Design the sequence.
C-alpha cells in the first residue's frame, strides 16, 4: 500500500539545484517515489505543500486537463513562499517575473500561441532543413580541425543558439549576448553559469536577479521591437513585435516574455539534449558503431535522446477544482509538481527505462510535455538534432571522453555544462 | 451526443459517446482509446490523432480546413478519407460513425 505523504528529507534534494551535479541520485529518488509514493504530497519546510506526480499516466492526465490544472496561477518552478510573495510584488501580482506561454492558460494561451503557430508547424519547419544542415556543417568542420573539444560548451550550446537566433532574426554578433542572458535566466543557481554577483544561497536575491535579467532582456529587445514595428521582415521578431492579442497589440511584459521564451526555450533544452547524448555516445563505442552501421536509426536515436535527457524536468500546476487522480483526492487550489523526468523513466511504460535504445518502439516519451502546452519548437528541435547526427556520426572514426563531464546545477532545465571529448574525424 | 466506434488497427472496437460540440479526439482520449495519442491536445500541430472514415460519411463529417489539409499532406496522408480526429466535431449527424485508427498509431 502506497503512502500519502512523502518524507520531506527523501524529497528535498529534488528541489535543491546543487543535487543535479549527480543527476543519477535524483533519478534514484524518483525510482523510489514511483514505487512507494507514486502520487503523494510533500511538505518541504518553507514551501507550500505539493503533490508530486511521478507516473507517466498521471503526468499525461494532468498535462492534458489544462483547464482543471492551470499553468498560470502559481509559480511554475518550486520557489519558497517568501520568494513567491516577492515575485508577486515585482510583477504586479503575478507569481512569476516573466509571463510566457508556459505561464498562461486558455483563452490567453491560445491567442498568444497563435502568433507563432504557423511558423512552427512541421510543414514550415521542414523548409528550414537545408539551412540548418549548412549551419551544423560549419560547426562540424570546425570540430574536425581539432582532436579534442568540450562538446557542451563549444558545440551544443552554440549551434541551436545560432539556429534560433537566425530564425528570430538576430544578427550573429548578438548571439553571445543571448547565450549569456539565457543562462542567467535559466541557470541562475549554477555557480559557473549564473549572473555574476548572484547570491546562490539567498532565494530572495535570486528573485531580484530575475528582475534585473528581465530589465536587461528588455533593454536588448526594445530597439529590435521598434525596428520590426517600423520595418517588418520575414522573421520571428517581426511576428512577435506586431503580434495581436484579441485584435490588440501585446502588452509589454507579454511581448518581452514572448521573446524570452522563443530565445531561451529554443536553445538551452536542445543544447542539453545534444550534450548529454554526446556524453552517452562517448562512453558507448557499441552504440556509435551501431549508429554508423545503420543511419536509419537516427530518428529513433533522437527520440530516445530526448527521453533519456528530459531537459525541462518538471513544471508546477495548480488545481482549479477538486479532481480525483489515480484514486487520490486533489482539492481546488492544490499544487502539483509534475515530473517529466520521472514519467520518462516509468518502468510500467518503458522497459529497462535507464537503457538507451535507439530502436525503442513505441517511444511515446513526454519530454516535450503533452496537451495544449506541448513544446512549440518540437519539430525544430527534432530537425536540429536529426541533421546533427546525420552529419556528424558518419564522420566520427573514434570517440572517447577526454575527462570528466559535468552537469549543470539546475533543478529546472538541466543538461551537462561540460562534455570533454577526444576523437578522430574524416 | 454521437455514438462513435473507434476500431484499432488490430480490429478491436471501442464504442463511445461523444458530447455534441466536442471533438472525436477529446472523446477518444477521455475514454482511453488506444492509438489516439493527440499529443497537442487539438492544436493541430502534432498529427497523432489520425483516423480514417468510410467514404459515405465524408460529407457529413464536413470539409477539411486548409490548415488540416496541409498537415495531412505533410504527414503523407493524401487520401480523402483520412482526417485529424481533433477536427471532427460530434453532432447528431455523426451518430453511428465508425472510424479506423491507422497502424502508424498502433
Ligand atoms: C530537445 C529540445 C526541447 C525540449 C526537450 C523541449 C521541451 C519543452 C517542454 C517540456 C515544454 C512544455 C512546457 C509546459 O508543459 O508548460 C516546452 C514548451 C515550449 N517550448 Fe520547447 N523544448 C525543446 C526545444 C524547443 C525549441 C527548439 C523551441 C523553439 C523555439 C522551443 C520552444 C518552446 C515554447 C515556445 C514552449 C512553450 C509552449 C507553451 O507553453 O504553449 N522548445 N518545451
Ligand atoms: S491532436 Fe494534435 S493534431 Fe489533432
Sequence:
Amino acid at each position: 500500500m502506497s503512502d500519502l505523504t512523502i518524507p520531506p528529507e527523501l524529497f528535498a534534494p529534488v528541489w535543491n539545484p546543487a543535487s543535479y551535479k549527480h543527476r543519477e541520485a535524483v533519478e534514484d529518488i524518483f525510482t523510489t517515489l514511483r514505487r512507494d509514493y507514486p502520487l503523494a504530497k510533500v511538505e518541504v519546510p518553507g514551501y507550500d505543500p505539493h503533490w508530486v506526480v511521478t507516473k507517466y499516466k498521471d503526468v499525461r492526465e494532468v498535462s492534458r486537463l489544462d483547464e482543471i490544472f492551470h499553468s498560470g496561477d502559481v509559480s511554475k518552478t518550486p520557489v519558497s513562499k517568501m520568494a513567491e510573495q516577492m515575485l508577486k510584488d515585482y510583477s504586479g501580482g503575478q507569481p512569476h517575473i516573466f509571463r510566457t506561454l508556459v505561464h498562461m492558460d486558455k483563452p490567453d494561451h491560445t491567442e498568444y500561441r497563435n502568433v507563432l503557430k504557423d511558423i512552427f508547424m512541421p510543414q514550415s519547419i521542414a523548409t528550414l532543413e537545408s539551412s540548418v544542415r549548412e549551419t551544423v556543417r560549419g560547426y562540424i568542420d570546425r570540430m574536425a580541425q581539432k582532436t579534442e573539444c568540450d562538446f557542451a560548451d563549444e558545440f551544443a550550446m552554440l549551434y541551436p543558439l545560432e539556429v534560433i537566433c537566425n530564425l528570430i532574426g538576430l544578427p550573429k554578433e548578438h548571439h553571445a549576448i543571448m547565450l549569456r542572458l539565457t543562462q542567467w535566466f535559466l541557470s541562475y543557481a549554477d555557480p559557473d553559469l549564473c549572473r555574476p554577483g548572484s547570491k546562490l544561497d539567498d532565494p530572495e536575491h535570486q528573485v531580484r536577479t530575475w528582475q534585473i535579467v528581465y530589465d536587461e532582456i528588455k533593454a536588448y529587445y526594445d530597439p529590435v521591437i521598434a525596428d520590426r514595428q517600423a520595418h517588418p521582415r520575414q522573421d520571428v521578431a517581426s511576428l512577435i513585435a506586431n503580434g495581436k492579442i484579441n485584435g490588440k497589440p501585446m502588452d509589454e511584459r507579454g511581448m518581452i516574455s514572448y521573446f524570452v521564451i522563443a530565445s531561451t526555450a529554443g536553445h538551452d533544452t536542445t543544447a542539453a539534449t545534444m550534450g548529454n547524448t554526446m556524453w552517452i555516445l562517448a562512453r558507448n563505442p557499441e552504440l556509435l558503431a551501431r549508429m554508423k552501421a545503420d543511419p536509419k536509426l537516427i530518428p529513433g536515436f533522437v527520440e530516445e535522446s530526448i527521453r533519456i535527457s528530459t531537459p525541462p524536468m518538471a513544471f508546477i500546476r495548480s488545481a482549479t477544482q477538486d479532481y480525483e487522480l489515480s484514486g487520490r483526492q486533489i482539492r481546488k487550489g492544490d499544487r502539483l509538481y509534475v515530473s517529466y523526468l520521472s514519467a520518462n523513466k516509468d518502468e510500467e511504460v518503458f522497459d529497462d527505462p535507464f537503457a538507451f535504445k535507439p530502436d525503442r518502439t513505441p517511444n511515446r516519451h513526454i519530454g516535450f510535455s503533452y496537451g495544449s502546452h506541448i513544446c512549440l519548437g518540437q519539430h525544430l528541435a527534432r530537425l536540429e538534432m536529426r541533421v546533427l547526427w546525420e552529419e556528424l556520426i558518419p564522420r566520427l572514426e573514434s570517440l572517447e571522453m577526454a575527462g570528466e563531464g559535468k552537469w549543470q546545477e539546475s533543478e529546472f532545465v538541466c543538461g551537462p555544462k561540460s562534455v570533454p571529448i577526444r576523437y578522430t574525424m574524416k | 451526443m454521437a455514438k462513435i466506434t473507434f476500431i484499432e488497427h488490430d480490429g478491436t472496437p471501442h464504442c463511445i459517446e461523444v458530447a455534441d460540440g466536442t471533438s472525436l479526439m477529446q472523446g477518444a482520449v477521455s475514454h482511453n482509446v488506444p492509438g489516439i495519442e493527440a499529443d497537442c491536445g487539438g492544436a493541430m500541430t502534432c498529427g497523432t490523432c489520425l483516423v480514417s472514415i468510410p467514404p459515405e460519411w465524408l460529407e457529413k463529417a464536413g470539409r477539411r480546413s486548409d490548415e488540416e489539409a496541409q498537415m495531412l499532406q505533410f504527414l503523407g496522408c493524401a487520401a480523402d478519407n483520412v482526417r485529424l480526429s481533433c477536427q471532427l466535431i460530434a453532432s447528431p449527424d455523426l451518430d453511428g460513425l465508425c472510424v479506423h485508427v491507422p497502424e502508424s498509431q498502433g
Notes: The mean pLDDT of chain A is 92.
